[in-house]
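Feature request, filed as a ticket because there's no other form

It would be nice if the structure record came with a short human-readable summary line next to the tokens. Right now we just get the raw output. Example of a typical job, pasted below so the devs can see what we mean:
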Amino acid sequence: MSVGLLAVVDDILAAAVKASAKTAGVVIDDAAVTPQYVHGLTPARELPVVWRIALGSLVNKFVIIIPIALLLTAVAPWILPYLLIIGGGFLCFEGAEKVLEWFGLHHGHADDGPRDEKKLVLGAVRTDLILSTEIMLISLASLDPDFGIWMTLGALLVIGLGMTVAVYGAVALLVKIDDIGLRLMKSASRRVRRTGVRIVAAMPGVFRVISVIGTVAMLWVGGHLVIENLAATFWHAPHDVVHAVTHAIEAAGPVIVWIVETALSAVAGFALGLLIVGVVTLVSRALRRTPATEDAH
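Raw output as currently delivered:
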């Protein structure tokens, strides 16, 4: 009996590792996006906030995504692409807003006060929901369809837990590297102190780079989700354009093809994000004017 159980566990772990390999790109994006939500907090609050976001990510995967994905795969698989289009559009919207903020254009009200942890965690968990949805759906599609419901569920749970630990473990390390540098600066060794100084001096630049990477990741993943799932539903044109471009440069090698495909997805995501920002801005202004008009009457 124990040998049979070990064999089942081994099959689940092997399937989970194989399926996880296909989600590496999205996992890297998730790890790049998250630190920007924590940057700017007091050092004492960084790890607690990362922990709360990680718990929210587990809730996303275990309570929302996996049950709904398994249910919809069984009864209404046609609806999944539409949900991913909506999720991709949201990522494009958030990414475009951040790019506009780089140029001093704020869609919302500027906030120079202390960051609201509840809103911060909610925003991070909301973004994680979309990225985690793609991770789990890619994993689900990579599993053997004859695996069985319980084996599939077990593999998805292993993948969800493993990905969450990997992403938020990396995020926790990133946000605490400056503290490690400060401790090194107190060392008796001059060489160690210099290393600590370099680490501390480098971290603002590192976080700026991570913020840019995270924003580009939002646009890339969002654009990719929309393009791929539009092609799976009712509009093939964007996907055909990307396919034609990447096919034309296949001789340059897979790395160049990936870079070009990623760039095209990010540009498409930014264009869609700007469109959504424009619509949201117009609707927000219209809603603000309506009460003012009513008060005037």
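Something like this underneath would help us a lot:
The radius of gyration is 22 Å.
The chain has ten helices and no strands.
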